[in-house]
Amino acid sequence: MYIFKVRKLYRYCKNFIFFILIILCFNYSSFNNNLYANDSNQLKRGISQTLTLAFFLMVDKVNSPLQSLATLFNGSGRVAADEFEKTIRFLRGYNLEIFPDSMGFITQSVSDSCMNVSECWVVAYSTDKFGVLRPGSDISRFPPLLKTVNWAVSEENQLIVGPPFHGENGKVYSYYALTVRNTRQFGVVVSIIEYDKIYKKMLTELGLDHIAINLEMKLKTKDGYTKAKKVINNQDYLSDNYYKVEEFKIHNVVYFITWNPVKVN
């Protein structure tokens, strides 16, 4: 009960911050049609930083159920399937605006056919009924998820962002993962997010419609970072009037984000 009270207070604080951002961005939106004629670098930088913070507050909002789910597993002797489902319903009730497309608990397989322990992971519980995260699914068949899980295991208690991949709808997704451990269970809780959905939800909440995002990400490796991978690539923007490229880091990944005012015909 104490944990959920703390979560509730945390959520209210984040909503308050987001409300302040909405006020700031509404002030911006009143003249966003004329931004392409404004040469003030200081103004551009301020708007860019505000939009970037708003976007990643939305990302954090999507991931808060994953962190709560990890808290449940780490604080229990064992989490059963029905308890998992009840917790998901509870968390969904507090995150009606935006919620991960699917969430699951993945544990190591004890099958005799398992030849490589690091690749023997199966989905134990999940909100997904038919996709990659459906219960009983062997995740070795989907490299982005397997890589995310193994990465999380190698860096316990760290929020890990998996490599971007394209879904059937052409949109780009990532898995987010956290290791969990209690007296009877060890595994990884994961959620999947769609970047474009977060971007569009942010625009809706801030009342903006003439701003385009270009988002890239680099994944951390032993030798540094990978080459930048495109996550959202909008072509209909004023290339000669883009805002400063902003960086945002989460443990194993760095995002590069550029905001561009779209000229209204």
Question: In words, what does this structure look like?
Answer:
The chain is built from 5 helices and 11 strands. With 265 residues, the chain is of the alpha+beta class. The chain has a domain at 100-197: 2-Layer Sandwich (Beta-Lactamase). The strands form 2 sheets. Strands 1, 2, 3, 4, 5 and 6 form a 6-stranded antiparallel sheet that branches. Strands 7, 8, 9, 10 and 11 form a 5-stranded antiparallel sheet that branches. A hairpin with a 4-residue loop joins strand 5 (172-181) and strand 6 (186-194). The longest helix is centred in the first third of the chain and has 34 residues, at 41-74. Residues 1-13 and 33-37 have low confidence and may be disordered.
How far apart the termini lie comes to 54 Å
Shape: globular
What's the mean pLDDT score? 81
Structural class: alpha+beta
State the helicity in percent bands.
Answer: 25-40%
Give the helices and strands as they follow along the chain.
HHHEEHEEEEHEEEEE
- H/I helix tally: 5
Poorly predicted runs of 5 or more residues: 1-13, 33-37
CATH class of the domain at 100-197: Alpha Beta
Calculate Rg over CA atoms.
Answer: 20 Å
CATH topology of the domain at 100-197: Beta-Lactamase
Query: Count of DSSP E strands?
Result: 11
**Beta-strand residue fraction:** 25-35%
**CATH structural architecture of the domain at 100-197:** 2-Layer Sandwich
The major sheet is characterized as: 6 strands, antiparallel
Brief digest:
By secondary structure, the protein is α+β, with helices and mostly antiparallel strands.
